[in-house]
Amino acid sequence: MATDSIDLQEIYQFAIQLAKDAGRLILEGSSKRTQSAATTQDPDTKKNRVDLVTETDQAVEAFIKRSIADKYPSFKFIGEESFAGGERVDLTDEPTFIVDPIDGTTNFVHAIDFVCCSIGFTFKQEPVIGVIYNPFLDKLYSALQGHGAYLNQTTRLPLTHPNPPPLPSLGDAVIGVEWGSDRSKAVIEKKGRTYMKLAADGKDVEGGVMAHSLRSIGSAALNYSMVAAGQLDLYWEIGCWSWDVCAGTIIAHEAGGKVYGKGGKPWHPQDLMGHHFFVVRAIADTPGGETGEQAQDRIAKEFFQVAEEWD
Ligand code: IPD
Ligand code: CA
Ligand code: CA
Ligand code: CA
């Protein structure tokens, strides 16, 4: 197909409208849930008891997939619920939508407002469009490569644009972390030790950095959005998938954030298909001569001296 002739502006506007339409379905699903809870919306379990999925996850993905196939029949599609249904698609140079119909399903089930639809789009393997829409809070985060990132299409991100604050050290950060759905002893021990070092004072715990705080908001895509906005200073997770982070990657990047590969290594497009994710918000250049990017790398280095990783 003529991949060079795709119209990214048109696809961007399409993705924004699609996310808003998906948001309406999510809201409808949530009201149905409160009206007739158990029978229609009882979450089935996928991998284990905490890996939840509802009828709404599946219905929203089916709607998005159908809408994309109608408008762009030759484009590839990667989506969480299609993957769970056995559909495996590799990341190639072809135009590809990478979609999580509901990111934050546990929040959705528990009626917590941090829920979104995440629509990413890659071309030549790079995320170039991202749209993340939280219909409960009516917040839409979006970005098109080279055109900046926005909240509700008008407010440039980060919210402090063009003057992101400095970040002197990891101890000054609010850090996004998650518990994820892998609750094996090995993983929870590593996470637990890492969180303890991030939270505790170095006088009490060896290596403790006593960061301002840790936040676990329950949606990878919204963690990226909050890093893009400059509300979270950084976000770390192992165990996410491409649909959790594709849209967030371009939104954070366009907001001046720096996205890293495994263990803080330089980002490579194929990292999107892995499970190690780390992103630091935009940081100002300092009068002392450190650039914002050098500051981001310094924070990343501090972080990976503390974090325990696994494959
Ligand atoms: C999950 C959320 C959660 C993260 C998990 C994801 P889901 O996605 O983003 O915050 O910790 O790794 O799987 O299941 O709600 O789409
Ligand atoms: Ca899920
Ligand atoms: Ca997800
Ligand atoms: Ca999901």
TrEMBL record:
Pfam families: Inositol_P. Its cofactor is Mg(2+). Keywords: Hydrolase, Magnesium, Metal-binding. Pathway: Polyol metabolism; myo-inositol biosynthesis; myo-inositol from D-glucose 6-phosphate: step 2/2. Its EC number is 3.1.3.25. Mg(2+) binds at residues 80, 100, 102-103, 244. It catalyses: a myo-inositol phosphate + H2O = myo-inositol + phosphate. PROSITE patterns: IMP_1 (PS00629), IMP_2 (PS00630). It comes from the Eukaryota. The keyword Metal-binding applies. The keyword Metal-binding applies. One of its GO terms (molecular function) is metal ion binding. One of its GO terms (biological process) is signal transduction. It is an enzyme of class 3 (hydrolase). Coiled coil: none annotated. This is Inositol-1-monophosphatase. It comes from Rhodotorula toruloides.
